[in-house]
Amino acid sequence: MNPLTLELINFRAIPYANIDLNDVTMAAICGRNGAGKSSGFTMAPRFALFGDVIEGVSMDDLVRRGTQEMAVTFTFEHQGSNYRAIRTRSLKGNGKSTLEFQQQIGTRWESKSAEKIKDTEAVIRNLLNLDDETFTASSMIMQGKANEFTSKSAGKRKEILQQILGLNIYDRLQEAARQKAAGLHLDIEEAKDKLAGLDERLKLKASKAELLESLNQETGAMKAFILSKENDLRQQEEKIRELQNKAEKAAELNKQINLISKEIAPFDIEKEGLVAKLGRAEKILSKESEILANTDEFYQVKEQITALEARWPEQERLSTELGHTGVSITNIKNEIVPLDHRIRNVQQLLQSRELFLAKAAEYTAATLQQKELEQLAERWDSIEKEILDVRANYNAEQTRINTTKSLLESEIRMLESKTSMLIDSNCIDDTKAACLFLSDAQDAKQVLIRKHEALNNIDLSKLTTLNKQITSLTEKQQEIGYDFAAHRALKVRIEELRPMAEEANQMQAKEELLVSLLEQSSRLNSQIEELTLKQINTQSELDTLREALAPLPALRRRLDILQPWANLKDQIGAAREAKQSSADRISAIDLELERKEESKEAIEEERALLLMETQGFDNALSELPIIQRELQQLRDRQHVLAEQIGGLKTELAALEKDEQDRLQLADELEPKAKKWSRFQTLIRAFGRDGIPALIIENAVPQLEHIANEILGKMSKGKHYIRFETQRELKSRDGVQETLDIMIGDWTSERPYETFSGGEQLRIDYAIRFALAELLAQRAGSKVEWLTIDEGLGSQDAEHRGLVLESIKAVADRFKKVLVITHIEEAQAVFEQQIFFENTDAGINVKVA
To answer: Where does this protein have coiled-coil stretches (predicted)?
Structure first.
């Protein structure tokens, strides 16, 4: 697997970048912290291939702040074909992700995506034969995670190594063999169960034949019982029908009786109403003289009320007018209170006229002085801007000199570490050292002299010139004599005097305002006197009118008492007519009621006779279900016998077939058992103690060889690595599969975990480089690039040089080696560099 291009849109801090890696072999990734180096070369490929795999960072956090859409397109070559993974994330709505995986066929891209994202990720993992953990552990040394492989448990290390070696294919082969064996085992067990079941069922064949003969005899006797019971049922049903007809006729006569009773009820109700109407008419006629007297008094009282109510609007008018007058007086008084307050304020202000005029003169003088100080301030600020510009140039020059000095000092330290090897070589004349390693140290010794000269000859003249300019401008600024504190105090004093000066300019207007306010106050007091006199007169008229209207409530109450008597006057004539008509109608109703009662008594006698004849109906009706139930029980038994006979015939036919099936199952069972035994052998061979264990045992020496070659360069041959793949069990006999890391020197061996941090880091690098190279040498899961993220910061200058030399030593074993670092001396080692530059438009990525 070899990366070709990487396109990022709104990914973390990067608004847009299109990085072409086709011509890159070994390069340093450079740029400020936060520019997106790690995001672009470690997070982005993992995100594109495997999705949400970055611990502590959600997919939404990968979208650049302030934007809604993010996309990563990662193009790579694998096993002779080009592929690309395009993954997007949108924050709109509830959030949405997409993943498209394509293969280049000629000049076009053909989709290899599945319907769901997780299924497409499975397609990618199957193609690469890697998951994210193994991919990261073998091809990336992340920032602060150089021990990504060594820090794992011994068991986890072995799992990662198995994936790197492509041994997970044996897991799939073992699972396939297990499934085949499980299917055969299931078939065999099912066949055994069937044979046992068939044998058990065949034992019942003779008894079922005897039972069938017995049931056939019982069925013949049951038919005779059913015919007899059916005859009894027909006779009982005929008897019930005769009694039913008489009961229905009695019910019809009962309806006629009820109908006559309903016809009598309206006559009773009508008679009751007529009797009540007759009583009311007689009562009205008995009080005729009293009704006429009260009616005359009603009309007299009504005329008095009408006369008094005609004067009622006048009372309401006077009340309203009196209220309006009171409101007007109150409103005018409310206007006088703030008016008097304003008059007093203006009078007090005019008494301080001389003081305001003095402050106005002081304000004018201070304003003139302020203009002079502002002119001096402009000259001061102009020189201050020149000083700031010169100071910025001074700081830039100082930074350039410090950077140059730091670079030279870093190169000198690296060269001194190389030349120190001449002293340790034990050569009599180190200038004649012939080996390639010491020859490189000789070259470094010559370069070291030139670097010391360059360090001592750094030009400081521009710094001196800029410092003199700053001194000259500062003296010129002091000659102006501008006092910032006095200027600020004068501004404060002007703001204090401004309100008093404005008041002084308005004194003439204040005098005119006072005269106007006094006239307005006099006019309002006159209005109050007029309204008060009007209020007294209106109140007097209202009191007189109220006295005249005082009897009105008593007259209204009397009118209400007399109203019912006036209403009865109109009913006297109607009462005379109602008395005569009610008496006539009552006589007619009595005759009709007598006739209907006679008819009702005749029908009741006929109904009583029918009820006597149907007294045996309930007994006959209760016997019918008993006969029906007995008949149904006989028929149910006949049905059960038929079902049992049919079931027995079917069972006997099935038993005949079972005898044939048993012979066939016995013939098929033996070859399946032999085939199942073969699959058990394959399961053991594909297990971790089988073929995969042999492959790991053969691969571990290769991994040790590569790791020791690299570690020897970094430790000057002091340390070597040995892997233990098995460990004796403490609790019982036997061994446990493991992958322990043992580190040895000239004296002894001890576990990796007992070494110091710096020593562990070099061991980590050696093993990680070895894993990456081992992966590159294996077919099927070939990752041909190595990424190292900020892995040099914890090393001193000497060991940093050794690590860089080790990186260069393994570079020819990979198609691409990318090193992310902010250390300038490390960046200078690489001929190719990829720059992440901060611009106003975002992050600009340039390959040089």
So the answer is: 174-263, 366-393, 500-548, 586-637
pLDDT at 255 over 50: yes
CA distance linking residue 818 with residue 784, whole number of Å = 11
Q: What is the CA radius of gyration of the chain?
A: 60
Residues 6+ apart with CB under 8 A from 13: 34, 35, 36, 39, 64, 842, 843
What tokens does 395 get? 């700081």
The long-range contacts involving 460-469, CB below 8 angstroms and separated by at least 24 positions, are 460/401, 462/397, 463/394, 463/397, 463/398, 463/401, 466/390, 466/393, 466/394, 466/397, 467/394, 469/390
C-alpha span between 679 and 182 (Å, rounded): 9
Packing angle, helices 757-777 and 691-714, rounded to 10 = 130
φ, ψ of residue 829 to 5 degrees: the values are: -70, -30
- CA 513, 516, 521, 527 dihedral sign is negative
Cα–Cα distance list, 96 to 13, 60, 69, 92 (Å): 20, 10, 10, 7
Contacts 24+ apart (CB under 8 A), 828-834: 828/407, 828/411, 829/28, 829/804, 830/26, 830/27, 830/28, 831/26, 832/24, 832/25, 832/26, 832/27, 832/28, 833/27, 833/28, 833/29, 833/30, 834/19, 834/24, 834/27, 834/28, 834/29, 834/30
**pLDDT tens across 21-64, in order?**
998 988 999 888 777 888 888 889 999 999 876 777 788 888 98
SS3 440: helix
Q: Where are the extended beta strands (E) located within 80-141?
A: 81-90, 96-105, 108-111, 140-141
* 265-275 pLDDT tens trace: 887 787 788 88
Tell me 167's DSSP state: T
625: tokens are 């279900």
Cα–Cα distance for residue pair 119/107, rounded to 1 Å: 26
Per the document, the length of the chain is 848
Global pTM reads: 0.42
SS3 483: coil
For β-strands 842-847 and 749-751, DSSP reports them as unpaired
Domain boundary assignment for the chain: 1-130+786-848, 179-203+619-686, 356-496
Residues 708 and 735: their CA atoms lie apart, in Å, by 26
Contacts for 569 with CB less than 8 Å, ≥ 6 apart = 291, 292, 295
In this predicted structure, the answer to whether residue 496 has a pLDDT above a threshold of 50 is: yes
Asked if residue 134 lies in contact with residue 160, where contact means CB atoms within 8 angstroms, the answer is yes
Residue 753 DSSP label: G
Residues 637-665 as b/e (b if ≥16 CB within 10 A, e otherwise) read: ebeeeeebbeebeebeeebeebeeebeee
Contact (Cβ atoms closer than 8 angstroms) between residue 662 and residue 199 = yes
- Residues 815/25, Cβ–Cβ less than 8 Å: yes
Q: Report the pLDDT averaged over residues 569-588.
A: 78
CATH code reported for the domain at 1-130+786-848: 3.40.50.300
Q: Is the dihedral of CA 66, 71, 72, 75 positive or negative?
A: negative
Whether the predicted pLDDT of 184 surpasses 50:
yes
pLDDT tens digits for 386-428? 888 888 888 888 888 887 888 788 778 777 777 775 665 555 4
Distance of alpha carbon 297 from alpha carbon 564, whole angstroms = 12
Cα 304 to Cα 316: distance, rounded to the nearest angstrom: 20
CA-CA distances (angstroms) from residue 277 to 272, 565, 570, 581, 583?
Answer: 9, 19, 16, 10, 10
The sheet with strand 2-11 has its strands ordered as 14-20, 2-11, 69-78, 81-90, 96-105, 108-111
Alpha-carbon distance of 708 to 719, in angstroms, equals: 8
Q: Which amino acid is at 273?
A: G
Joined together, the tokens standing for residue 386 give: 């020149």
Largest CA distance in the chain: 168
Contact between residue 113 and residue 704 where contact means Cβ atoms under 8 Å apart? no
Select from 72, 298, 136, 33 the least CA-distant residue to 771.
136
Q: How confident is the model at residue 439 (pLDDT cuts 50, 70, 90)?
A: low
